[in-house]
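Late entry, written up from scratch paper. The run itself happened at the end of the previous shift, but nothing got recorded in the book at the time, so transcribing now.
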Amino acid sequence: MGLPDRAVPFLSALGLAAMVLVGVRLFRGDAEPVGAPRAWWRMTARPLAGFLLAAYFVADGLFARASTSGVFDVLGSAVVLLVAAAYVGSSVTMLVLRSRGRPPVGAFGGFGASASSGASGSSGG
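Output as recorded:
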């Protein structure tokens, strides 16, 4: 009933992607409200954190996981690179929203300042 050893890189990458998904849904930044759900595209509280994590996952996908050339190795690298792309997309979206004057709640304000005053007039969308 054991899995072939070749499948381990792909399965570990899927496990890593699942852990990232749980992490980005559960952990919030200091100024992020915990009552409202986080936007589906948002992976971190700040853009810099997303870019740094993306760099880590790119390095993992290109150097650590791509050290062999099996199909499951390539699939594992692809999963990790998709995680990196999600972090980049999240950070770029936050920067675009900030440049348009519409930052997501808690993304760029002072620590804790907007969390207590944002509940009284927000419509949530």
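DSSP finds four helices and no strands in the chain.
(Scratch paper discarded after transcription.)
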